[in-house]
Amino acid sequence: MRFLIDFFPILLFVGAYKLQDIYVATAVLMAATVVQTGIIYALDRRLQTLHKVTLALVLVFGMLTLFLQDERFIKWKPTVLYGSMALVLAVALWGWGKNFLQMLLGSQLQLPKPVWNKLTVAWVGYFAFMAAINAYVAAYFSTEDWVNFKLWGYVFPLVFIVGQGLYIARYLSATEETAAKPPHD
């Protein structure tokens, strides 16, 4: 269900582009992201920082695209988002000694600190990769190719998240086994 909520603005964006143009698609993306954010808020009664940042960037870059009639703004929005996420996680971990990933997910996942650090480094790399690949496609390919990339590019997060799941699975089962054992007398 969450995947569908995350995916539907992109799907509507691509559909609107195929039926109309980048400007109609941008307006659809803006509206769909507002609806998506509303649905997430209705389900969770709160918004995570990533949802707020995504909404703000979609609205700001979308408005710039529409008002200036310049598609480069909406094409570069993912690069700004991914680059910012990589930068924030990296500065927090290596500059401030804070693991934002652990702070966000630590109540849901009990993992050793070195594993949290490796996961954060992996996320920094993933976000940097996604920023770079979007920048490359936005700069060197047509708008049609970039829009198609937005759709099939969802393979990258799927592969990354499955990889993360496989990596942490061994730590989760070890934690569950330890928690299931009765205490020694």
UniProtKB/TrEMBL annotation:
It is a multi-pass membrane protein. It comes from the Bacteria. Keywords: Cell inner membrane, Cell membrane, Membrane, Transmembrane, Transmembrane helix. It is found in: Cell inner membrane. Pfam families: IspA (PF04279). The keyword Transmembrane helix applies. InterPro entries: YciB. The chain crosses the membrane at residues 22-43, 50-68, 80-97, 118-139, 151-169. HAMAP family: YciB (MF_00189). Plays a role in cell envelope biogenesis, maintenance of cell envelope integrity and membrane homeostasis. Belongs to the YciB family. This is Inner membrane-spanning protein YciB. It comes from Hydrogenophaga defluvii.
